[in-house]
Every structure is written in structure tokens, then in C-alpha cells.
Amino acid sequence: MKNNHYDAKTFSLVLRAMIEKFERDMRESKFAELMNKHFAASSIPKGIHCLSLRLTDEYTSNAHARRQLPSPEQVPLLSDNAYHHFVLATDNILAASVVVSSAVQSSSKPEKIVFHVITDKKTYAGMHSWFALISVAPAIVEVKSVHQFDWLTRENVSVLEAVEIHHSIRNYYHGNHIAGANLSETTPRRFASKLQSRSPKYISLLNHLRIYLPGLFPNLDKVVFVDDDILIQRDLSPLWDIDLHGKVNGAVETCRGEDKWVMSKRLRNYFNFSHSLISQHLDPEECAWAFGMNIFDLRTWRKTNIRETYHSWLKAVQNLKSNLTMWKLGTLPPALIALKGHVQAIDSSWHMLGLGYQSNTNIENVKKAAVIHYNGQSKPWLEIGFKHLRPFWTKYVNYSNDFIKSCHILNIIQIIMKRAGNLADFSWYNENQLHSCRSKRFILL
How many other CB atoms are there within 10 angstroms of residue 355's CB atom? Predict the structure, then answer.
């Protein structure tokens, strides 16, 4: 009996040790998956990087690539409210080309389209070259860099403060290291948030520009602001005729719809209501809405204090001291506060979300949507994009263009698609392949 008792005790100890090891291994695997997915989502594919470099070089050597955009006789149309004005802020030339091409090809009145493309200083030459050399006539395209807006060097510098705040928040919350994080003292969810804070888009000046549109375009009454990860499949001109009932922002609500995973977002999904400052000002059951494709009434906006409210919440000392527990990262949570009471819901068919973070999207619904949005990490230009959703996007890539061909755009992705099968499965994206991608300059960190 004594020996049997000893054996049972030993067995229980060994079993416990095995279970603990299994849990540790599972935990480490989860962290590895999050890390690899983060690197994959933050990467710049070699082809897209090549495209930017080639077009920048073209800007310096080709006078046609430096021609004025738009032509002098079309400049007055940039502030003509009889036209349909789109605003796109991005540093991704390929994505910008797809957004503009899809808008023009889907429009019943392309001659009425004016695109205001805003980019950063490093991308400006390449972006200008693309639209100077690749005509989208009869539509009009203006390309400007943020440094070309005089408001940036005058009194309206709050946007710069907002970016600096996000720099401070990122460093305070996570520091400048990922590899050195003590995984034993954090959870996968918290680690994912830390990785998210490292995403370049959260500290990009371009990400904050939408909240300053009335100042950027003082002569325009209405604009449609679009993200660079959207695709336009239907004529959007009726958006300018939608009655916003005195509201500033026409947006699709994300708390109701067929897709319960994507369309189930309420304020509780973005804010921490255990924080007193949040619970005092917001209702957790209030419906959220989406950025990505919004119709903004700038004339009404100028009569509000939306910008000031947005900036004051970003500067809230509590947000920094509370270790970023007030809301999720990004510009949407503070915008949900700043634009509270200023949003008019529009029909959900105008804007379909979720194509960048779930693979079981209804294809028929995708085909019917006016705008499809690849929000999430799995962008269509990345190798982790979902292969069955990518063709909607790639059909607007001009593969006959010499720059596209010389940079082998999406060739690597197509090879990986054949090898990987289902790109929704990230298990194939192991550390060895990540190291291989780094060594081949596919991922530029």
C-alpha cells in the first residue's frame, strides 16, 4: 500500500508538471503567433518598396513626372463645390492607385471626381510621379504633402501635438522594445495591445488629418474621406445628396447587421467603462460607427468644437497615467467622443467592413457593397491577406504598367498563396520563414 501511495503521488506530480509545461508551451506559441502576425502586418513588401523608390527616382529625372497636378486650368476646380471631392491620406502608392482607379471606374460621372491625395514628405515625389504619369482622366487628382499645407507652420499645430502625445503614450506604455518584454508578467491580450501600440499608423501624422479637414479645405462644403485599404465598387455620387440632418459625419453604424462578428461594436468594445472619466461621459450600449468611408459636411463642422474636443481628450493626463486603459489605440475612440451627437447613420450597403481580419466574409455581400474595407491586419497587398478576398482588390492593379512590372508587384504573394493554401492559417508563418523574409528584405523593419 505504501508503494502504491508513493506511485500515485509521483504520478500526480508528473502529471501536474506535464500540464504546466503544456500550458507554458501554449502560452509561448500564442505570443509567437501574435509577434509573427504583427511583423507580417507591419511589413512593406519588397515590390511596394521598389515601386516607391523607382517613382521617386523618376521624379528627379523625368520632367513629365514633375508636371503640375492638376493642370493650371483645372486648379479652380479643386475648390468647386459642384464637383465630388474625395480626400485620401496615405503613404502607400499602390493602395492609393487602387482607391482612385476603383472610384473612377465605378463612377457614372468620373468627370465630376476630384481626388485630394495627401501624403508625407518622404513619399511625395513618388506619389506625385505616379499620378503625373498615369492619367485617371477625366477625373482630377491633386497630390500634396503635409509639409505643403501652410496651416501646419502657423497656429494650427495641435495635430503635431497629437502625434507627439501618441509617441509619448507608445513609449510610456511599451518602451522601445518588444523582444525584451517579460512574457511571464503579461497576458496575450495585453501583449497584443503592446504590439498594436508599435504599429506605425498610430503615430502617423496622416492618421490624424481627418479630424482637421475643415482647416485643410476651407473652401469645400462636403467631402468623402476614404482610407487607403478600401475599394470602391459602386458609384458614390449619391452620397453628396444624402441629407445629414444637420450632422457632420455620415457613417455606417457597426452595432447591427448580418455579420455578428464585424457588426457588433458598441462603445463598450472601445472604452474601459470602469474608468470614471469614461463612465461619466459615455453610454456603453451606444452604437459605434466606422471610419474608412465617411461623408463629412465641412460647413456644419466649422460651427462646432469637434477638433478641440478631440484634442483635449488626446491630451487627457488620465489616459497616459492609466497605462492606456481608457480606450483602445487609434483615432477612432477619441473621434467617437469628439463626434458624439454629430453622426448621421447611413445605409450599411455603402460600407462593408472586416475584410482584413476575418476569412469567413460573405462573398455575395462583398459583391453588393458600394465600398469594401480591408480593415484589420490582413491587407490585400500583404502576403497574409485572405486569398479569396484579394481578387476584388487586385483587379484594379495595372499590371501592364512598366513600374508595376519591373517591381514584380504581388509576384511573391502569388507564389506564397500557392504554397500556403489557406492564408487565413498563420501557422505556416513560423519564425524561420520570418527570418528568411527579413534576410531577403521582404520585411523592412
Answer: 28
| Type of residue found at 92 | N
- Alpha-carbon distance of 79 to 378, in angstroms, equals 36
pTM summary value: 0.82
Question: Residue 45, preceding bond cis, omega within 30 degrees?
Answer: no
Q: Which residue has the cell 502625434?
A: 163
Q: What is the DSSP letter of 288?
A: P
Strands 222-226, 84-89: pairing is parallel
What gap in Å lies between CA 224 and CA 87, rounded to an integer? Answer: 6
Element (H, E) at 167: helix 158-174
pLDDT in tens, 359-412: 788 899 999 999 999 988 889 999 888 989 999 999 999 888 999 999 988 665
Q: Cis before residue 218, ω within 30 degrees of 0?
A: no
Output the CA–CA distances (angstroms, integers) from residue 98 to 101, 190, 235, 394, 438, in the order listed. 5, 35, 15, 8, 27
Owner of C-alpha cell 497616459 = 320
CB-CB contact of 385 with 375 (8 Å): no
DSSP SS3 for 145:
strand
The alpha helices in 239-343, defined as continuous H runs, are: 276-281, 298-301, 306-314, 317-321, 332-338
**Beta strands 343-345 and 230-232: pairing type?**
unpaired
Residues of the chain with pLDDT under 70: 1-6, 38-41, 151-203, 316-325, 410-445
Residue found by looking up cell 462644403 in the block: 221
Tell me the C-alpha distance between 245 and 258, whole Å: 26
- Residue 223 phi, psi dihedral angles, 5° rounding: -140, 155
> How many other CB atoms are found less than 10 A from the CB of residue 176?
8
85 strand-pairing partners? 114
Coil, strand or helix: which one is 255? Answer: coil
Residue 28 to residue 102: CA distance in whole angstroms? 42
Kindly list the strands in the beta sheet with 222-226, ordered across the sheet, starting from the edge strand earlier in the chain: 140-145, 113-119, 84-89, 222-226, 293-297, 249-251, 343-345
The answer for residues whose C-beta is within 8 angstroms of residue 76's C-beta and 6 or more apart is none
- C-alpha 161/C-alpha 174 separation (Å) is 20
Q: Are 307 and 363 spatial neighbours (Cβ–Cβ below 8 Å)?
A: no
Provide the H-helix boundaries in 198-242: 213-216
Task: List, for residues 205-228, the tens digit of each pLDDT value.
Answer: 788 889 889 999 999 999 999 999
- DSSP letter, residue 24: H
